[in-house]
Each structure stands twice: as structure tokens, then as C-alpha cells.
Amino acid sequence: MSGNLWMFSDMLDDEDAKMIQHEFVTYYEGADYYGLGLKVFTRLAHEAGAVYKIGKRVLIRRDIFEEYLRILRRKEDTSEMDENMKSEDNDMRQGALTLDAQTGRMDIRFDLENYYGGLHCGECLDILINGDWVPTRIEMGDGWYLTGIKTDNLEGLIVRI
After folding, report:
1. What is the distance between the alpha carbons of residues 8 and 97, in angstroms, rounded to a whole number?
2. Strands (E), 55-131
3. Pair (83, 99) in one structural domain
4. How many CB atoms are located within 10 Å of the residue 132 CB?
5. How far apart are the C-alpha atoms of 148 and 104, rounded to whole Å?
6. What percent of the chain has pLDDT over 90?
7. What does the alpha-carbon distance between residue 32 and residue 161 come to, in Å, rounded to a whole number?
8. Which of these, 108, 143, 153, 161, could form a disulfide with 116 (CB 3.0-4.6 Å)?
9. Does 104 lie in the same domain as 73?
């Protein structure tokens, strides 16, 4: 095992400490510890190549199994991130900021007759600056402003939400 275990000792319970002492676990111990069903744990252990037959016992090598879980998690996280980015690009709409004189709110005009419906304080959006989309948030103080963006006039700025 590598790393500094003492740095995380306050996060470990007795069960974790007991598992750290074992290089190999049985199917039942592993399924119980990792919170997986016996069939799922067995399948993952075989996929990981962590199954060893020692005498009459079948044991799973923890370090190989855990590395396989990390790889699966990494793949899952990146695929979720890719899906989120695809849906984000598809769901976002682009328009120009404009001030609604009747309500005093900033609004986004998508086309001649299609408006967002009024922005509220704290609403997040992206603004186009020098060809790059910059995430920001619209707020109201003495007047409307965008956090992290220095500009005197918000009207006409290209945004997406």
C-alpha cells in the first residue's frame, strides 16, 4: 500500500482498518465490504483478473480489484462529463442582453419576439468575450452587473443560458 495512511486516519473506521490488514479477501468479505451484491462482486473480480485459487480457497487480491474499480470510476466520470457537455451545448440558447424598461429587469432576446422572460439575481450564464465563453453570474447592486466582468453597459452583450 502506498501513500500516507495517517493523513486519512480520522476517516477510517474499524472495518476499514481490518480490511487494510488483508491482501486477499473472500467473495463474501469483499461483497460485504464494497457494498456490492455477491454476483456483481464476483463478476467484477473476474473482469479485474484479481481472482486467485489458493489450495481449495478462492481469494480476491484487493489491490488489483481496487485499481480496477478506480479505472471503471474514471471511465464513468469521463463519460458522464462528455454527456453533460453534449447536453449543455444542445440545451444552451444564445442571445443578447437587454433591459426590460417595464420591469427594470435584464432579459435575454433570442430573436425579435422571443425573450428569456427576465433574469433574476444570482442567475448563472456564459458571456462571449473575445471569442471565448466566460461563465459569470448576474447580480443587482446599484444597477445590474456581471460578477468578474468589468463593463459599464450590459445591453447588447452576447450571452448563453
Report:
1. 48
2. 57-61, 94-100, 105-111, 114-115, 123-129
3. no
4. 8
5. 22
6. 24
7. 45
8. 108
9. no
